[in-house]
Design brief:
CATH class of the domain at 57-376 in chain B: Alpha Beta
CATH topology of chain A: Rossmann fold
CATH superfamily of chain A: Class I glutamine amidotransferase (GATase) domain
Number of strands of chain B: 28
Number of domains of chain A: 1
Structural class of chain B: alpha+beta
Strand content of chain A: 25-35%
Distance between the termini of chain B: 50 Å
Order of helices and strands of chain A: EHEEHEHEEEEHEEEH
CATH topology of the domain at 57-376 in chain B: Phosphoribosyl-aminoimidazole Synthetase, Chain A, domain 2
Strand content of chain B: 15-25%
Number of strands of chain A: 11
Largest sheet of chain A: 9 strands, mixed
CATH superfamily of the domain at 57-376 in chain B: PurM-like C-terminal domain
Largest sheet of chain B: 7 strands, mixed
Strand order of the largest sheet of chain B: 8-10-7-11-9-12-13
CATH class of chain A: Alpha Beta
CATH architecture of the domain at 57-376 in chain B: Alpha-Beta Complex
Shape of chain A: globular
Radius of gyration of chain A: 15 Å
Largest interface: A-B, 32 and 36 residues
Distance between the termini of chain A: 7 Å
Oligomer: heterodimer
């Protein structure tokens, strides 16, 4: 059954309409929820979309975590609701403590916008349940701060609990253990740097994002 | 000019502000008295070269500007055309050359910011940016510093503000060593009924200043920076405070707030604040609306205390817009601004007086001038122009007399340069429109309705082109050839050209040869525009591009927008398919004058460009477009700089397939740059159909070889391995520019 998705919009978010377009193309419905809202309404799934929330000032996600809507997202996630953070949304979720680790500047100190290949590492997450382990999907990246880092203990925990959702085939940014995306202990919150919504149309170079978002919907 | 002694200058203030004695007198005649200091400052920015086009207007009038699909032509914030399905497209190109020379990161960043505001000031949402860039040679450390800073600035601002950068050009050449060119083009779309213009109408309506506070940054930037050349480094360092600082997050909120105002029909008009700041925005909106305006200068929110009225009125602080609203709707406007955390302040009132008055908090009138005079009474110069005295001798000095290359393969490898080092730093995919992005002959974007999001099944295609080597030989024909290249770039992606905008980057207009180049260029473009039935819908002129007394090569850069009538499949792109046949479309005049190969052999600005027949070029572009749309070609690439040799090599390295070509007689046929040609890669079973179509259209063509193997072979001329060519292509820019940028 297709879901109704709340797409979170902070001042500075810029991928919110792209996510709506992708969700609708897969038969779902979506509404934009502005950052000052305290309720997610009738949503049964949440996407924290990419962009530069609050200008990425201070550091990506550092201000966004204090926006009123993030309390609602936290309550929703704690109740087991599916939440996906894409790119800046991933950064926001780590700052908000909904996902472990942090995203630092790319190893090459350059912004990178290009197609990337990801290997699906687990199907036990809200974004990969319809995929298969070891499958390689082509999904574009678009970030300056996408270099995933975490403590050795956290990394061991992520590995031990099968919470690394995606790894880069060819690491573009220096992320520890080639990590492109992780999930929460409850497996209902997923964050990833690549943009599945950019890989959902035949004319855009890849349709691999459809199977990920289809899992979510 | 009459010289009334009561109007004569009393000191040199006007000269320090960049106004001549004659211009000072002209202000006095308009006012019937000497201008005070504030008025003088206002006229100095509005009558600067950058704002008034005083040296170029007389020539720009010759561009053809009309077509049934043109909704707004030159002279507004952006040109606008009707692209069907209830959608209007807004297009604009600007230069930020001088600020970028001084402060590369901020200069380029604020260039992006400025062009976006031009686009949403007509009611359109900006959906794509392109950046034609020109830098000094790669072996010059300062040129590399400028290039890195400019690319970082575009990346830092453009990505953050949320508008994809879908293409452009990057050229390194000695002519730009002291004066880089940073041009930026922006495309926006809107429902046709939302088109708004910067008009202040309705006496009693309010002028609301939206966005950033006003500071001392960029005071008089247009007159100090944009309207003078560069001398030595120390003097240039003093100009740094005239470069503005950009804040993309402020701009992003400003875009959303302004578009929401327009969506809800809450603004009579909106106008961006760019060059000449509040003075320009208030006088232009008032003049265009046939009204006047009182500006309450003390109401303007300031970034720092103690600013003088002349500073407030001429500051070029970024991220500001002026909206004209009715008093009844003010509260709703302020509520939208609050939602987006955008500062909004009433700073003026529309009057029926036709005068722009600056009034302080005590009601004292600090300036009082006819609003129209700031724009319409600006001086118009027909500056002396003359062709170079040695023109005949220059034209007779042919590159064909140069010795033939000992190793054409090495020359070819030296021309290959993948620009992805630049454009992977730009978000070029946002909005899910980019079917073909940077690196393609033209960017191809899905055309979706801006309000409903409905996919029209059609596309928009855009290209920017400029070639200073051609224009240095012959500005008139070089400009026409530039337009031909743009049209062919659109044709190979299946698009028909609809509108052109130009950015005329030239040297010092006080040099008669530069004015001659500008005039010739306008005529060359006009002839080509008429041949293709494409209107010019806007432009920008950047003069004084000179360094230490040396003018840059004339570098007109154009942007051409086209429509792809059926975008159900991805256009073929500049690729080869193993086993397919190669067809060269268009006639070749085997001369090397103006070519990249000749310039590398030290021959530039001399000779006679290859024969150009605009009617033939139009026919060639037309048939190529038809073949592409009908799916009859597997690869298509325009032939321009580097000739057919470079076109074939680029197709090979992009697809990992080599070629064997024949019927290319010599290096002049290989590297010559006759305009209006393309290379097509055609499956064997389609060759007959394609040749028949070319015959039927009367377009010259030749079968020149086969795509196959792992070598680049031109019989009797060159034979290099695909691996070597690919490495040369891939490594040239990264090797020179390093792995990263550290600014910003």
């Amino acid at each position: 059954m297709a879901r109704h998705v709340a797409v979170i919009r902070f001042p500075g978010t810029n991928c919110e309409f792209d996510v709506v377009e992708a969700v609708e193309s897969l038969g779902g419905t979506a509404e934009i929820v502005f950052h000052d809202q305290t309720s997610l309404g009738a949503a049964d799934a949440v996407v924290v979309a990419g962009g530069f929330a609050h200008g990425d000032y201070l550091r990506p996600g550092a201000i966004a975590r204090f926006s009123p809507v993030m309390d609602a997202v936290g309550v929703f996630a704690a109740a087991g609701g599916p939440v996906v953070g894409i790119c800046n949304g991933f950064q926001v979720l780590t700052e908000a403590g909904l996902l472990p680790g942090a995203l630092q500047k790319n190893a090459g100190l350059k912004f990178r916008c290009e197609m990337s290949e990801l290997r699906v590492e687990t199907t036990d997450s809200v974004l990969t349940s319809a995929s298969s382990v070891g499958r390689v999907v082509r999904i574009p990246i678009n970030h300056f701060e996408g270099n995933y880092t975490c403590s050795d203990e956290t990394l061991a925990e992520l590995r031990g609990e099968d919470r690394i959702v995606f790894r880069y085939v060819d690491n573009p940014n220096g992320s520890v253990d080639d990590i492109a995306g992780v999930c929460s202990a409850g497996r209902n919150v997923v964050g990833l740097m690549p943009h599945p919504e950019r890989a959902c149309h035949e004319l855009l170079g890849s349709t691999d994002g459809r199977e990920l978002l289809a899992s979510f919907l | 000019m009459a010289s009334d002694p009561d109007l004569a200058p009393v000191d040199d203030t006007h000269a320090a502000l960049g106004l001549t004695d004659d211009e000072y007198l002209r202000i006095g005649e308009t006012l019937g008295r000497r201008p005070n200091h504030l008025e003088l400052a206002m006229y100095s920015v509005m009558w600067s070269e950058h704002c008034s086009y005083k040296s170029s207007r007389i020539h720009l009038r010759r561009f053809p500007t009309e077509a049934p699909w043109v909704l707004v032509g030159p002279g507004e914030g952006a040109g606008v055309i009707d692209v069907g399905d209830g959608i209007a497209a807004a297009l604009r190109i600007e230069s930020h050359n001088h600020p970028s020379a001084i402060e590369p990161y901020q200069g380029a960043a604020t260039g992006v910011g400025g062009i976006l505001r031009d686009i949403f000031s007509v009611g359109a949402r900006p959906i794509a940016v392109m950046d034609p860039l020109r830098f000094g040679p790669l072996d010059d450390a300062r040129a590399r510093w400028v290039a890195e800073g400019v690319v970082s600035g575009i990346s830092g601002y453009g990505n953050s503000v949320g508008v994809p950068t879908v293409g452009g050009e990057t050229v390194f050449d000695e002519t730009y060593a002291g004066n880089p060119l940073v041009n930026v083009l922006c495309l926006g779309v809107m429902p046709t009924e939302r088109l708004v213009l910067g008009r202040a109408e309705g006496v009693g309506n309010l002028a609301v200043l939206l966005g950033s506070t006003t500071g001392r940054d960029g005071i008089g930037g247009v007159s100090v920076l944009a309207s003078a050349g560069f001398s030595d480094d120390e003097a240039d360092a003093d100009k740094r405070p005239s470069v503005q600082v950009g804040d993309p997050f402020e701009e992003k909120r400003l875009i959303e707030a302004c578009l929401e105002l327009l969506d809800r029909d809450l603004a009579v008009g909106v106008q961006d604040l760019g060059g000449a700041g509040i003075t320009c925005a208030t006088s232009e909106t008032a003049a265009k609306g046939g009204a006047g305006m009182d500006v309450m200068v003390d109401e303007v929110p300031l970034r720092q205390p103690g600013m003088e009225p002349f500073e407030v009125m001429t500051s070029e602080s970024q991220e500001r817009m002026l909206a004209i609203v009715t008093p009844e709707q003010l509260d709703e406007v302020l509520a939208i601004a609050e939602k987006w955390e955008v500062r909004a302040t009433v700073i003026g009132t529309v009057t029926g007086s036709g005068r722009l008055r600056v009034v302080d908090a005590d009601g004292e009138v600090l300036a009082d001038v006819p609003a129209k005079s700031l724009e319409e009474d600006a001086p118009l110069y027909d500056r002396p122009r003359s062709e170079p005295t040695d023109l005949a001798e220059r034209r007779a000095d042919r590159a064909d007399a140069l010795p033939a290359p000992s190793d054409p393969g090495a020359d070819l490898l030296g021309m290959l340069a993948d620009t992805s080092w630049v454009w992977t730093q730009y978000d070029h995919m946002l909005f899910l429109n980019t079917v073909m992005g940077p690196g393609a002959d033209a960017a191809v974007l899905r055309l979706k309705h801006p309000t409903t999001g409905a996919d029209t099944g059609r596309g928009l295609a855009m290209t920017t082109d400029g070639n200073h080597l051609w224009c240095a030989v012959d500005a008139r024909q070089g400009s026409a050839m530039t337009m031909v290249e743009s049209v062919m770039n659109l044709a190979v992606v299946g698009a028909r050209p609809m509108a052109m905008v130009n950015c005329m980057n030239f040297g010092n207009p006080e040099h008669p040869e530069v004015m001659w180049q500008l005039s010739e260029s306008v005529d060359g473009f006009s002839e080509a525009l008429e041949a293709f039935d494409v209107p010019c819908i806007g432009g920008n002129v950047s003069l004084y591009n000179e360094s230490r007394g040396r003018d840059i090569d004339p570098t007109p850069i154009i942007g051409v927008l086209g429509v792809v009538d059926d975008l159900s499949t991805v256009p073929p792109g500049p690729v080869l398919v193993d086993g397919s046949r190669l067809i060269l479309v268009g006639a070749t005049d085997p001369t090397l004058d103006g070519s990249l190969w000749a310039s590398r052999a030290g021959h530039r600005g001399r000779g006679t460009l290859p024969t150009l027949d605009l009617a033939s070029a139009a026919a060639a572009a037309g048939v190529v477009r038809e073949l592409v749309i009908n799916g009859l070609v597997q690869g298509a690439h325009d032939v321009a700089q580097g000739g057919v040799g470079l076109a074939l090599a680029e197709m090979a390295v992009r697809s990992g397939v080599g070629f064997t070509a024949a019927r290319i007689a010599d290096h002049a046929e290989l590297f010559g740059e006759s305009a209006g040609r393309a290379v097509l890669c055609v499956a064997p079973d389609q060759v007959r159909t394609v040749l028949d179509a070319l015959e039927a259209a009367g377009v010259p063509h030749a079968r020149i070889g086969v795509a196959a193997g792992d070598r680049l072979v031109v019989k009797d001329l060159l034979d290099v391995s695909l691996a070597d060519a690919t490495a040369a292509w891939r490594d040239q820019l990264p090797a020179a520019l390093g792995s990263g940028t550290t600014q910003g």
